[in-house]
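ok posting inputs for the pyridoxal-5'-phosphate job
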Amino acid sequence: MATYHQTVLEINLNALAQNFQYLKSRLQSKTRFLAVVKANAYGSDAIKIAKKLEKLGADYLAVAYTDEGIILRENGIKAPILVLHPQIENIDKCIDYSLEPNLYSFATLRYFLKLTSKKNTVNYPVHIKFNTGLNRLGFVEEDVFAVSEILNKTSNVQPISVFSHLAASEDLDEKKFTLQQIKRFNSIIEKVKETFQVKPLFHLCNTSGILNYPEAHYDMVRSGIGLYGFSNIPSFQKNFCPIASLKSVVSQIHTISKGDSVGYNRAYICKSESEKIAVIPVGHADGINRTYGNGNGWVTINGKKAPIVGNVCMDIIMVNTTHLSCKEGDEVLLFGKNPTAETLSEKVQSISYELITSISPRIKRVFIEKS
Ligand SMILES: *Cc1c(COP(=O)(O)O)cnc(C)c1O
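and the output
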């Protein structure tokens, strides 16, 4: 095992490949795979991850914003890239960088058509999103005819796909709602087939949709969190491996006595005769936010849990190591295989997505890949 003398986010590209292959194994062979690499590939490294996913055979990539797509193009990514939320201010850059915008409203559709007409594009690929119950971005079902009328009048753009997004695909208590979303999407598909001149790809499922609703895979699925190692469904979790591990090191160890305090605002007071406190160089500026302080979060040192004592500082946390043997320079695990980011984040009413995407860019990304 490599040792580092600083805090690093270790990213295991073999684990990424394993998660990709497992998700693929849940699909029919003709179903396309769109890999979501928004938010720096869920806090890891969008360029490295996108390159690896291209090699693995992902058919499509998706980012949230246009600028995220530009970075991928500037670094040689060739796969088609769907921009999920191209904002009007940036949408013209989509064309310069061969990025495929999601057009989710009449305003975005009309604006993009104006741009493509000015640039005389031919069949520029666009994606049309419908709202089926999440009430985030998207046209409503009743808009299909008006949208098709607009699209059928132009050859500047071509609707490559029509899609929607599930609100609670991981939660089987909401199965009735999800089935209603699927039904509404089916009805949109019927209307699209009747009115669009070309047959687009249809897609609906995110990671937990892929796992829970195999009947709703349609032509393509979109996976983010599963690629990074989380299924959101306990019975499936054994098939996934978190790709990112946040590792640090013991910078210093103090022995404190009864009545001594630790950290800002003296939030922790030593109640026993003597305690051993280790100082770890990672803090709220790195994404370990203050809610993890005061015993809510912990780190693992030499296989044992050491609770965070007192308040999380900007660059540092202090942990209680009285009960375990450790020395300065020892490796510290914040999350990875055990505990996972999901387990740790649950302690502060958060989710894996939030914790892994919060790890600040000042933390060095280190890649491991065994051939
Ligand atoms: C982020 C996102 C996804 C990926 O969802 P996961 O739960 O991470 O698999 C898929 N589709 C859309 C529209 C998204 O915004």
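notes: The pocket of pyridoxal-5'-phosphate is lined by residues 36, 38, 84, 165, 206-207, 222-226 (CB under 6 Å). The chain has two domains: 13-230, 244-368.
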